[in-house]
Amino acid sequence: MTRLLRIDASARTSRSLTRALADNFTQIWRRRRPQDEIGLRDVGSNPPPIITEDWIAAAFAKGRSPDQEQLLALSDELIAEVASADIIVMATPMYNYGMPAALKAWFDQVVRVDKTFTFDLARGDAPLDPVFAGKTLTLLTSWGEFGFAPGELNEGRDSLTPHVRTASRYLGVEAFHHVGVEYQEFGDERFEASREAAFAALDPLVDTLVSALELRSDPRRSAA
Ligand SMILES: Cc1cc2nc3c(=O)[nH]c(=O)nc-3n(C[C@H](O)[C@H](O)[C@H](O)COP(=O)(O)O)c2cc1C
User: Fold this and answer.
1) 89 by DSSP, 3-state: which?
2) Is the pLDDT of residue 219 over 80?
3) Per-residue model confidence (pLDDT) at position 218
4) How many domains does the chain have?
C-alpha cells in the first residue's frame, strides 16, 4: 500500500482553487488505486504555531524535560505523517509572492535536526543531510498574477515554488512535480484557459506517478 499525504494551505475553505485541484487529484488517485491511504493535514484551516525560542531550545536539547517533550509533540506528529508518506500532495496559494505563513510554520515544525535531517561538520561545507529519501512531491498552486517563468513578465518574483522545492529536500523528496493555475485575479479567458489546463494536467500526472510507483515495486516492467 502506498501512502499519500495531502497538505492544504489555503486560508479559504470555500472557492479555493488549490483545494479544488487537490480534491480532483485525490479523486483521480482513488479511482486508480483505491487500496492506497490518503491522509490530510489542513494547515490553512488549522495553522501550526510559529516556532519560538523555547521550541528551538527543545529541538536541540539532548535530554529533554517533560515540558520540552510537550512543546515538540505537534512537531513529532507532523514529522510522523511525513515519514510514513510516499507521496506528498501540497496544495498552496501564493501569498505575497511566497508561501502562506501557515505552510511556512508547518515546514518549520517538520524540518528538525536529528528527525528529518542530520548535521555533521565532518561533511565539510554541506553538513546537512536528509534522513528520509525516495519521496515524491506534487505541488498544486494558484496565483492571481501570471508569467513567473524565465523570460516572462514576473520572472524572478516567484518565491513560492523554489522555496518549497528547496525545503522539501529535508522531507526526503527526490521527485518534484508542479501544476498551477495563473491569472486568478484577472478572471478573464486567460484564467479560464489556465484553470482548464491545470485540471486537465492532473490525469496524466497521476498516470506518471502511478507508473513510477509500479516500476519501483516491479522493476521488470521497465523492460516492457
Ligand atoms: C493574502 C493574499 C496574498 C496574495 N498574494 C499574491 C501574490 O503575491 N501574487 C499573486 O500572484 N497572487 C497573490 N494572491 C492571489 C492568490 O494567490 C490567488 O487568489 C489564489 O487563487 C489563492 O488560492 P486559493 O484559491 O486556493 O485560495 C494573494 C491572495 C491573498 C488572499
Assistant:
1) strand
2) no
3) 79
4) 1
